[in-house]
Design a protein that fits this description.
single chain, 93 residues, alpha+beta, Glutaredoxin, four-stranded mixed beta sheet, 3 helices, 4 strands
Length: 93
């Protein structure tokens, strides 16, 4: 069962697409639950995790997986690129 943490911030041009893509993965059953935090409203949580930029993603035990997927911010494509990453994490658990 994969759990996701996502940090976003106002004015981030990529955050809405990442949030939408991860929501699609929840609907598809690839992710069990997601915690979304707005870095502007909870800076202490971001500081605790040493988060300096957004979107910041933790899927299962790994942080910032966007660099491992071939990230494209066209609608729907991020979902397809993150699915294999989610599946590989599930297999390694």
């Amino acid at each position: 069962m994969l759990k996701v943490k996502l940090f976003i911030a106002p004015g981030c041009p990529h955050c809405p697409n990442v949030l939408q893509a991860l929501s699609e993965l929840i609907k598809d059953g690839e992710i069990a639950e997601m915690e979304v935090s707005n870095m502007a409203l909870v800076p202490e949580k971001a500081q605790e995790l040493n988060i300096r930029s957004v979107p910041w993603i933790k899927i299962g035990p790994l942080n910032s997986l966007a660099h491992k997927a071939k990230v494209s911010y066209k609608p729907g494509s991020l979902v397809l690129n993150l699915k294999p990453v989610c599946r590989s994490i599930l297999m390694s658990c």
